[in-house]
Amino acid sequence: xxxxxxxxxxxxxxxxxxxxxxxxxxxxxxxxxxxxxxxxxxxxxxxxxxxxxxxxxxxxxxxxxxxxxxxxxxxxxxxxxxxxxxxxxxxxxxxxxxxxxxxxx
Length: 105
Fold this sequence. Notes:
The protein has helices at about 1-20, 30-50, 55-75, 85-100. By secondary structure, the protein is an all-alpha fold. Helix 1 (about 1-20) packs antiparallel against helix 2 (about 30-50), helix 1 (about 1-20) packs across helix 3 and helix 3 (about 55-75) runs antiparallel to helix 4. The longest helix has 22 residues, at about 55-75.
């Protein structure tokens, strides 16, 4: 169950990051509220995952899911630029996440 909590916590990290961008520095109320709710939910699920998962594994995977998810949202939703260097960097993050998962019993 901890892994499920962790995946959803990471996905909610993507949600709050996206809506933080949409909040325009917390000047728009609805995106600001969504940011706050998703942030609290993300941290709550991360906390539940950390009950049984090692700190290093849980935190690394949480931030990695958030980083790669935000990268993809930036490209596909916000129209941010994509180039070989950015793709290689994201691929290295994913490779690190896979290795972290495989190294955890």
